[in-house]
Amino acid sequence: MITSVARITSARRFKLWPYLLIAPSLLALGLILGFPIYKLISLSFERYGLAEIIAGKGVFVGLANFTETFTDPEFWKILQRTLIFTLGMVSVSIVIGAWLAHLMVKMHPRIRNILNGVLILVWAMPQLVSISVWRWMFSFDFSIVTALINSMGFEMDNHNYFVNTVSGFLIIGGCVAWGALPFITISIYAALTQVPKDLIEAAEIDGANSRQVFKSIILPMLLPVYIILISLSIIWDFQVFSHIWIFLDSRPSAEYYTMAIYAFQKSFGLSEYGKGAAISLIMIFALIGVTGYYLRQMMRMGDE
């Protein structure tokens, strides 16, 4: 009897131990993020502008900020633009990253190590430096891209690439994809190295071509990794802010507004902090579903 009680007590302690280990981290996160999140939620239900800042107190307006946001045609245009930008960035990043990863598998080890080093350097480069380099490449006065185009016989002196939103978003998207590629490529390459070569060789002996091998063996085994990378890319690209802000000298026109820029401008540009908080909260709820799906896939991979 005493032995069985001791075993039950020991089992309970073992079950509690993981929670005790993560408790300090959860407590720290709660203290750091708890008040900002509380303040964001409370602001979203208030009218809080310059007059309220001077008075030191906001005016409770209930769901008015959300109602005005959802009935604003500009909100839906910006949301659509953000979704298109996110979808484009995720697609380009994943496709190019997967292509590079498959190339790395077939490369000579020395060339692969050089490419690995280049990717790590790109990943380690501070975002501000990376954006500044890209901005210089397409600058109005000293663009190296314009110089190359001029050397081919085309006259493009003092060309502003950001007058047209299509070319502007393509350049910004290129910079975003450039920063995301190292993580995606190295993650897919690491997953590819775990695919059993015996299965691939057996399929090739049975007459399967490279497309059939990829579809029947490689893709199913890498699917959890792809899902995680797509989920993370959606989270990152949906809230892109720094790239647009720096490329456009902190003065983006309305045609370049994404959800993050829109929330910032509402809060700090127009001093409508309540509406800015409401938009930010909408963004958070939009990403909660993606984050939940990502965590679910991570738990599945852990169980496997």
Task: Walk me through the structure.
- With 304 residues, the protein is an all-alpha fold.
- It has one domain: MetI-like fold, CATH 1.10.3720.
- It is built from 13 helices and 2 strands, in the order αβαβααααααααααα.
- The protein has a two-stranded antiparallel ribbon with strand order 1-2.
- Helix 1 runs antiparallel to helix 13, helix 9 crosses helix 10 and helix 10 packs antiparallel against helix 13.
- The longest helix has 43 residues.
- The protein is globular.
- The two termini are 37 Å apart.
- The mean pLDDT is 85.
- It is a multi-pass membrane protein.
- Its main location: membrane.
- One of its GO terms (cellular component) is plasma membrane.
- It is found in: Cell membrane.
- One of its GO terms (biological process) is transmembrane transport.
Write the layout of secondary structure elements.
Elements: H1 2-44, E1 46-47, H2 50-55, E2 59-60, H3 64-70, H4 73-106, H5 109-124, H6 127-137, H7 144-151, H8 165-192, H9 197-205, H10 210-238, H11 242-247, H12 259-269, H13 273-303
Antiparallel strand pairs: 1-2
